[in-house]
Structures are given as C-alpha cells and as structure tokens.
Amino acid sequence: MKSFYHYLMKYRHPKPADDISQFANDAYDDHSFPKSSEDYHEISSYLELNGSYLHSLVVFDDAWELYETEILKKASI
Known about the structure:
Blueprint: H1 4-8, H2 19-29, H3 40-50, H4 57-75
C-alpha cells in the first residue's frame, strides 16, 4: 500500500496553488518526515511536534481524508 507521504507527493507543485500543495512541498523538504507511515496518529503527532511549516493541522486532516478516500478504502475492498 502507498504511504501517506508518497500519496501526498502527487500534490507537489513548483507554484503551489493551495494549502495541500504547499504542505506537499514542505513535507518533501522535511527530511525527517515519517515517509513510510500509513498511520494517522504517528504522522499527526510528528507534525504537532515538528511541522512548524504547517500553518494548521486542518490542512493535514484534509489531505488525510483524500488519502483515506483514494488509497485506504480501495485497499480494504
């Protein structure tokens, strides 16, 4: 299954047009980001402690919801 980080990378863009694209760019630059994780709580805890680039955890929640819809739910079928 695709990790959240690898899913998020599809939103990277040189000129981010929205918060999720900016989050993807910043996560890419964060060399300590838990790249192989598929666990909401692990990533959320990491961002709470280390995600100073993330202006609001709502952006993470929105990205996670897309990840759940597109990746996690398909994997459970």
